[in-house]
Specification:
- The complex is a heterodimer.
- By secondary structure, chain A is α/β, with parallel strands linked by helices.
- Chain A is about 25% helix and about 35% strand.
- The two termini of chain A are about 15 Å apart.
- In chain B, about 35% of the residues lie in helices and about 30% in strands.
- In chain B, the strands form three sheets. Chain B has a six-stranded mixed beta sheet, sandwiched between helices. In chain B, strands 2-1-4-5 form a four-stranded antiparallel beta sheet.
- In chain B, helix 5 runs parallel beside helix 6.
- The longest helix of chain B is centred in the middle third of the chain and has 15 residues.
- Chain B is globular, with a radius of gyration of 18 Å.
- The N and C termini of chain B lie close together (about 10 Å).
- The chains are: A alpha/beta, B alpha/beta.
- At the A-B interface, helix 10 and helix 11 of A face helix 2, strand 7 and helix 3 of B.
Chain lengths: ~475, ~270
């Protein structure tokens, strides 16, 4: 591969700074006591502590999954701190009381907390290490009856809702990382859209890991009642540390009759350096339940960061005529590894799902699509369309596709298309011969390749995603 | 068109180049003046296509000797995109497909990049659309071309027309047409040739690289050169092409002094 291409794809990480802020960090290690301590720090009700302990007991009996196409040294779960929070003296009454250092951090990250936010009309919940720092726009949302707050707050303010839905989509013993999250999660976002309400603005959560050797285990729960709809955006960054941090989140979505949830992620965790040192282990369980008839859940993800990504945002299509969608762009460079995809579980009649996955691998990275389309015997008339495209940049990167299909109803239609392409020297030469420099060429090729997915993002996120890819795959050309 | 005392646009002296360690060009001498149309002919493997790619700056070729001046400046000091912006255009023999990148979008970026370099205003998408549709008429191209991905699923003829469309948009000073006639049926050939003829004038020059004489019936060259084994072994006027067509390449006796072309031949023809 030419030096030009190398330069383009090797851009330094912009969000790798550490905020110097007083933190309350719990000692490393994990046992029942740790969980009791987290629960008591958060002043949680007994039922939640029970839930945590039950999950912890389940986790102890589980093994780390080994089927993914990723490799890493064994994680020492006793060497992680399970709670880190910016110190605060008293409960904050307004944004003005937020630590200015923290505000500057989010400013640097481009999170629009103040007036910019008003203009954008996005309500933002910000999770810094383990706790939610602020949720804006609460009042306006409350008028519409929408609840949007941190998970900790929801546990106290709306315990009946949390208790009713927590762990119903991703059950206790679902998988190793989800069980760990269920035991030790510290915060996250909670969102409830009441019957018939179209959420008046897009909701957004921004996640940031700031403390070295701390894990981030957030838990997000979104419920859309009958006929409700919401668009939810999620962004993530972390400082550059030479050690690896574990991020094991769980996101649960529930859509009742005729409800619609659109969940978009732009993930830009620190990916490690060019030799693969450091970076986030992004082991995330995201699942939506289309519980009601005619409901729709749509996942859109742009995964650019993290040393290792292990993530399969899925939809369980229980309600008749429900629709599940998964649109994904995963970019890996240097020694990053991504094993990502989705599961579409068709149970209801005439359920439909669409999967569009675009993987881009550069450097020595490995990028795998792994997806399951399962048509149950009850899923009369189910349809699935899957398209998985891979693009290779350079000679040392890998692209893999692992599609699984289980079809147990004869009336179902399942389609799968896959392609692999390469940004070759000859394509670059063609652009150059027309006077177009390498940066613009790569950007144009990549954006063309990802077009089907970017179209699914809300506009401001689409712009951010395009910039992020440009920034990750382009730059100063010598 | 041969213009008396016209300025030299391209001056190639003793050019040597290799690919993967094998020398393909072994001392090429070649001069092009403003206004002229040259044809380089020769059997397969003679180095014709290599010569075009070397001029455009393809990275696979290593320059091992000689010099090329473009408008008096060292061409090899420029990166491929800088050469393009300086006015060197290569119509590719096998234009590559670029899936997902819209042809219209691609053409506009190329055009606007060049406009900016030339100190002109860029065209917005609507203005460009009008501009490019006008140019497409010249090549009898369907406007649908703009919405398709660059060269993707194009027939051989469509690809070649698309190349000439780019030439029409970018208005290069030196156009190098690499086997532009290959894969064209007779109608397409006529349209492409018409397009090229329409674009040639006293402020530019054209080099046609071709295996067959057929194209030269439509785009009549001022000079014809024969390349063999990495050198230009014979130069002459357009009648040389006809001779090659009827007698093949085997009869050619190299010019005694290959370095003296094409000035010597120019006088004969003129």
């Amino acid at each position: 591969m030419s030096a030009v291409l190398q330069n383009i794809i090797n851009q330094p990480y912009k969000h790798g700074f550490v905020t110097d802020i007083e933190s309350d960090v719990m000692a490393k290690g994990l046992d029942e006591n740790t969980i009791r301590m987290i629960s008591s720090k958060k002043n949680e009700p007994a039922w939640l502590l029970d839930f945590r302990l039950k999950c912890y007991a389940a986790w102890l009996k589980m093994e780390e999954p080994t089927w993914a196409n990723v490799h890493h040294p064994k994680i020492d779960y006793q060497a992680i701190s399970y709670y880190a929070a910016p110190k605060k003296k008293a409960k904050l009454k307004s944004m003005d009381e937020v630590d200015p250092e923290l505000l500057r951090t989010f400013e640097k990250l481009g999170v629009p907390l103040h007036e910019r936010m008003a203009l954008a009309g996005v309500a933002v919940d910000v999770i810094f290490d383990s706790v939610s720092v602020t949720t804006t726009y609460k009042a306006r949302l409350a008028e519409a009856g929408v609840i949007f707050c941190s998970m900790s707050e929801a546990v106290h303010e709306h315990p009946e809702l949390v208790q009713k839905y927590l762990g119903t989509v991703v059950p206790t013993g679902d998988n190793f990382y989800a069980a760990l999250n269920s035991a030790v999660f510290t915060d996250g976002s909670f969102c409830y859209i009441p019957k018939g309400v179209k959420c008046p603005m897009d909701l957004s959560t921004y996640f940031r890991i700031n403390t070295e050797e701390s894990g981030q285990f957030e838990r997000t729960l979104i419920i859309a009642e009958e006929g409700a709809s919401v668009t939810y955006l999620e962004g993530c960054t972390a400082p550059a540390f030479s050690s690896n941090q574990l991020h094991a989140a769980v996101v649960e979505l529930v859509a009742l009759d005729n409800a619609e949830i659109k969940y978009s992620t732009v993930q830009n965790w620190y990916a490690g350096d060019e030799n693969g040192i450091g970076g986030i282990y992004n082991f995330v369980t995201k699942r939506g339940l289309c519980k009601g008839v005619n409901s729709r859940i749509s996942w859109t993800q742009v995964e650019t960061g993290a040393a290792i990504t292990w993530k399969y945002p899925s939809v369980v299509l229980l309600g008749d005529n429900s629709v599940g969608e998964f649109y994904s762009v995963a970019v890996t460079n240097n020694y990053q590894q991504a094993d990502t995809g989705t599961k579409m579980i068709h149970i209801g009649k005439n359920t439909r799902s669409t999967i569009v996955s675009k993987g881009i691998s550069a450097g020595h990275s490995n990028n795998s699509y792994r997806g399951l389309v399962k048509i149950s015997p009850t899923a009369e008339g189910a349809r699935n369309y899957s398209q998985c495209d891979s693009m290779l940049i350079g000679e040392h990167s890998g692209a893999h596709t692992f599609p699984y299909m289980q079809v147990r109803n004869k009336s179902a239609k399942v389609e799968h298309e896959a392609s692999t392409s390469k940004i070759g020297e000859d394509q670059m030469f063609y652009f150059a011969q027309r006077g177009i420099d390498a940066e613009a060429a790569v950007s144009m090729i990549i954006n063309g390749f990802c077009k089907d997915v970017f179209q699914q993002l809300p506009l401001e996120f689409a712009v951010e995603a395009t910039n992020l890819l440009s920034y990750k795959l382009e730059g100063s050309v010598g | 068109m041969i213009i008396q005392d016209s300025k030299v646009l391209l001056e190639v002296r003793g050019l040597r180049a290799s690919v993967n360690g094998t020398e393909v060009l072994k001392g090429v001498d070649f001069t092009v003046r403003y206004g002229e149309v040259h044809a380089i002919m020769g059997p397969n493997g003679s180095g014709k296509s290599t010569f075009s790619k070397v001029l455009a700056g393809h990275k696979a070729y290593e320059i091992t000797g000689g010099s090329v001046l473009f408008d008096g400046k060292d061409l090899f000091a420029l990166e491929p995109e800088e050469r393009a912006r300086a006015g060197v255009f290569l119509a590719f023999q096998y234009p590559i497909e670029i899936p997902g990148v819209g042809n219209g979008q691609f053409l506009r970026l190329a055009y606007n990049t060049l406009q900016t370099r030339r100190g002109h205003e860029e065209l917005d998408p609507l203005e460009f659309d009008d501009f490019v549709r006008e140019k497409m008429k010249l090549l009898e191209m369907n406007p649908d071309f703009l919405d398709r991905s660059v060269n993707e699923g194009f027939s051989g003829g469509e690809k070649k027309r698309n190349e000439i469309l780019q030439m029409a948009i970018l208005e290069p000073r030196l156009a190098i047409l690499d086997e532009t006639d290959s894969g064209l049926d007779i109608d397409a050939l006529r349209i492409v040739a018409q397009g090229v003829n329409h674009l040639t004038n006293k402020n530019n020059a054209t080099i046609m690289v071709t295996h067959y004489q057929r194209l030269l019936n439509y785009i009549v060259p001022d000079f014809v050169h024969v390349m063999e084994a990495g050198r230009i072994i014979k130069s002459g006027g357009k009648e040389l092409a006809q001779e090659l067509e009827s007698r093949g390449y085997d009869w050619i006796q190299p010019d005694l002094d290959v370095n003296s072309q094409p000035k010597a031949t120019a006088r004969i023809v003129a």
